[in-house]
Every structure is written in C-alpha cells, then in structure tokens.
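Form 7-S
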Amino acid sequence: MVATAEPNQYINMAKHFFGASHPLFSAFGINLDDVGKGVSTMSIPFNEDLCDRSGSIHRGVIVTLLDTNCGLAIFSRLGDMRPIATIDLRVDFIKQPEPGDAIYSEVECYAVQDAIAYVRGRALSRSGNELLATAAGSFAVGTRGPSFDSAVKPQEQE
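Output:
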C-alpha cells in the first residue's frame, strides 16, 4: 500500500527524504525550497567541491538537481512517493553558471497518463536569475523499485 499524506506532512516527508535520508542529496547540499501540486523548486548552494575547472557548478550537478526535482514534482502531483524511474530526460544547456554562483531549479509535472509522468523545468542562477538549462522528460510511475515512502516516516507538523 502506498501512503498518501496531507500537504504539510508530505512536505515534511519530502524534506526528510531529500535532505537526510539520501547520501547524494546530502553531499550535494540540495535544498527543497518549495513544493506544490505538481511543481517544486530545489536549489544547490555554491560548493567548490561541485565545480568544474572554471570554478562553476559542474553540468553533471545541474543534471542531478533537475532529475531530483523532476521526481519531487511527480511525487507532489501523484500525492504519494511510489517508485518512479527516468525513461527520458533531455537537458539543454544554455549558459554556464558564473563562478561562485549557486543555482536553483523549477520543475512542473504537467501530465500523468497511464503509467507515465511528463515533466518540464529549468535551472537558473541564484544571483541573476539567468537561464542556465532547460529540461523535459518522461518517467515511469509505479516501477518495481522500492517505495520511497517506506523509508520515510511521516513527521509531526512543525
């Protein structure tokens, strides 16, 4: 059975999962900034360990942020954290972040049809809100992987 949570409980569960329960998200310092029905915003602060040779946040980090945020947007549209898997994620890089600049991403899950969720989003610079990359993709819903909410206990509202 997949647990469905009230909006505030869901945000708390997502913050717990995307913050403390996943080593990669924790190592990258991914922050969950906002989540609503089918939309979410996440960010990564500047960290020299995540930079390329030019001192900018590495493109692979940007892809990870976008992919992670796609998952959260899907979970928020579905209303639960059932297993999903990336089918296709296209990321088009528009501009390199400035050295020392943090980034954030905004993603929307705009449709779920049968067992496929469809997303679109973008990554932007924190300082100037400059468009860095766009993303569009599709994800399988209800895959055979573990349910994310089984590892995350609902927390009391703060």
